[in-house]
Amino acid sequence: MLKVRIKDAAGCAFFYLIRGLERVLAPHRYYSLLQPLFGARAMFNTILKKPGFAEPRPEFLQVTAAARVGRRQRTRDYLNHILEFFPERLGKEKWLDQCRFEGLERLHQARQTGRPVILAFCHFGPYYLLRFWLRAAGIPAATLVRGRSVERMRVMRLKDRLSPFPEISTAFYQDQLRELSEFIAAGNVLLVSIDAPAGRQMDLSFSEGWKLQMATGAMRLARRHQAELLSCAIIDEGSWHFCIRIGQPMPREFLVEESRAPDDGWSGAGKYLLAELMPDLRTNPEQCRLDFIRRLAPDR
Length: 300
Fold this sequence. Notes:
With about 300 residues, this protein is α/β, with parallel strands linked by helices. The protein has helices at about 1-25, 25-50, 65-80, 105-110, 130-135, 155-160, 175-185, 215-225, 255, 260-285, 290-295, and strands at about 100, 115-120, 140-145, 170, 190-195, 200-205, 210-215, 230-240, 240-245, 295-300. The protein has a single domain (about 1-300), classed as Glycerol-3-phosphate (1)-acyltransferase (3-Layer(aba) Sandwich). The strands form two sheets. It has a seven-stranded mixed sheet with strand order 1-9-8-2-5-3-4, sandwiched between helices. Strands 6-7-10 form a three-stranded antiparallel sheet. Helix 2 crosses helix 3. It is globular.
């Protein structure tokens, strides 16, 4: 218990330090200040990390196995997580040029139908920033995450209160299904991972000789709540510059009727989402996360 309290207190102190620096520095200067510090941390952690089992992966994803890519990605992650400490500032003028949206009008149009909206994403790029940039753009978004709500540390609750739409949590846990249903029913936007290991799954052809074990939660929630379902991906373009791409709304026929056989019932919807996400996966293979790669298996 004491260890948790110390960690919590240290996290809060770091929280206020990071917020204070953001107030006085331009984004590019702030990034330049932090980059060598987190670069050294990434190199140190890479050296300490024991070599693990090489995850099997399709040929176009082999680039993600390189150690230098791992260090670079770890450095970017450390830096990108900093943006979570001042979510209410991301909509300010000095941050507006840091994130561009492609397809945001599709999301607005989907919301104008009066239906809730589910955004399906995978562990690719700095996916953990999606809800914060969407809120900065005026979209009340939250993410469905694993675990229990009691595990949410104090610093995370601080981020929630500072985020745009502070009355709405930025994350819902598996033990908050009633709150989740109310959130969706109110017409908000929910981000759901399609490569989560929990829940009902189906196998889907990914590329030649490979299959993806895809979670069907996003599709089930969209059907249950009569929600619009769109794909969503965030690309890290470096130095705190991002691009968020929102796909075309899924045709309603994919969500109207569920077959008794789970694989057959959702294969059309799964193929549609994967086709929407695949161009970014192939263009930026180094941004495919290990959580995603572990959902791939040889198709024997």
